[in-house]
Design a protein that fits this description.
single chain; 460 residues; mainly beta; 6-stranded mixed sheet; 5-stranded mixed sheet; 2 helices; 38 strands; elongated
């Protein structure tokens, strides 16, 4: 037998005679088993005399064409050549080693498929037409990482799984994937007290922001093609600012916000001067490679409140205010441009009682909702008038409240119970009741026990 591609024939064995019952002639036969025909191609069979190897009995060799066997899952394998950096934009090389049931290399990948499943990109199927032949039985497939996600690679042959699945965590992006210009152009600022974001105008003028308040710089990461990244790209963003006239840098590092799909950089400017700098996006915090640079400038100013745009109100725990209850004076302070005011040294809150006169009012402190508040604790039953001035000008109308009665929390129960009095016929006058003392009370007479009620001010 001369196998395909071989130059030397291989002996298969001796032929045995067999009687043909139909013709009563003897025929000679030899069985060629399948394991001797593992390689696809054309086989030539010849019959020779054993005593004379050069004598060919059949002058024309018998030619048999053996077609490739299908690839088998049990004898095939696969491998994934991981990129040096598992990043969006990197190319991953996947290799299939396909063999038939005898372990011989497959000629084609007709019945092989590769299934790639990603949490973001979904399911992708690669079949024979997607594979490149590297060598007999060896096929390759290149896959470009498209999103930050966990990938699962599973190979199938005729529906049967080949070996174990391979996994890859894509954790960052390559700079070549990022549209630096689009990313820089989408940088925005959300100022303190605002719910909207502002972009820089075309003139490049410094953006006015209030000083001594925290603002937010937003930097989305835009891919080439215009789509933003929503998963954390594991890059490093920061805002670098230099006060005008100095060389000292102020660095505000950013963090990724999945809800916003952006890097957020909180920053606060201490003085009302101009700050010049840039927003940077780098491969990592230790990297000197800057992927995106956006020049920025801010004109910080003191945000003083204005009387025309500021107001206040009174708030208490109940509609009827009693002695000992806390009254809250809540102020909404806005600058002339209706932005939240932060410098309150021109604001004066005054409370005047109809009996107590000018009352002590604590300083305004800023609340989590952006308002300013202080407390008032009335200790007399009277009418109290509260006013607020900004820079000497009244801000809103005066607010009036009437204090009636005492709050239960303002009563001094211990002092009250220690001063009971007894009035009885046997007593010439009202007598204080002392612990452990005995008093005579006549049968049938009316006796009165007085318990005074003291408040914390010592009055009844």
């Amino acid at each position: 037998m001369l196998p395909p591609g071989a130059n030397t024939s291989q002996p298969l064995g001796t032929m045995d005679p067999m009687l043909d019952n139909a013709t009563t002639d003897f025929v000679w036969q030899l069985t060629v088993i399948g394991s001797q025909l593992r390689k696809a191609g054309s086989y030539n069979f010849s019959v020779i005399q054993s005593t004379n190897a050069s004598a060919v009995i059949v002058n024309t060799p018998l030619r048999i064409q053996v077609y490739p066997a299908a690839s088998a899952a049990d004898t095939s394998t696969h491998s994934v050549a991981m990129p040096e950096l598992a990043a969006v934009g990197a190319v991953l090389s996947y290799t299939l080693y396909l063999n038939d049931i005898y372990g011989e290399p497959s000629i084609t990948a007709a019945n092989a498929s590769l299934v790639i499943i990603g949490g973001v990109t979904g399911t992708m199927n690669a079949t024979a037409q997607n594979f490149t032949t590297v060598a007999p039985g060896i096929f390759s497939y290149n896959y470009t990482l498209a999103a930050i996600e966990r990938l699962n690679f599973t190979m199938f042959i005729s529906g049967s799984k080949v070996g174990r699945s391979a996994y890859l965590n894509v954790t960052t992006v390559l700079p070549s994937v990022i549209d630096a210009a689009a990313t820089a152009n989408n940088a925005m600022v959300q100022q303190y007290g605002e719910i909207t974001r502002r972009a820089w105008n075309a003139s490049g003028a410094a953006l006015p922001v209030s000083d001594d308040a925290w603002h937010l710089m937003y930097l989305p990461v835009i891919r080439v093609g215009g789509s933003p990244l929503y998963s954390n790209p594991q890059l490093a963003a920061r805002l670098v600012l230099t006060p005008n006239g100095t060389t000292e840098q102020m660095v505000f590092n950013g963090y990724w916000s999945s809800s916003n799909g952006s890097y957020l950089m909180p920053f606060k400017l201490p003085d009302n001067i101009t700050y010049i700098g840039q927003v940077e996006l780098r491969q990592s915090s230790n990297s000197t490679l800057t992927i995106v640079t956006k020049a920025v400038s801010f004109a910080a100013f003191h945000s003083y409140p204005a009387a025309a745009t500021s107001l206040f109100r009174l708030a208490a725990s109940s509609p009827t205010i009693k002695m000992g209850e806390t009254v809250y004076i809540v102020a909404g302070l806005r600058a002339a441009n209706n932005q939240p005011a932060l410098a309150i040294d021109t604001v004066v809150v005054q409370a005047t009682g109809s009996l107590s006169g000018i009352m002590s009012v604590g300083p305004l402190t800023q609340q989590t909702d952006g308002t300013w508040a202080t407390q008032l604790h009335p200790v007399q039953q009277e009418t109290i008038t509260v006013t607020m001035t900004v820079g000497g000008t009244m801000a809103g109308p005066a607010q009036t409240m009437t204090i009636t009665g005492r709050s239960p929390t303002y009563l001094d129960y211990n002092s009250s119970i220690q001063h009971p009095k007894l009035l009885a016929q046997s007593l010439s006058q009202t007598s204080y009741v002392s612990a452990g003392a005995s008093y005579t009370v006549y049968i049938g007479e009316t006796s009165l026990l007085y318990i005074p009620v003291f408040d914390r001010a010592g009055t009844t």
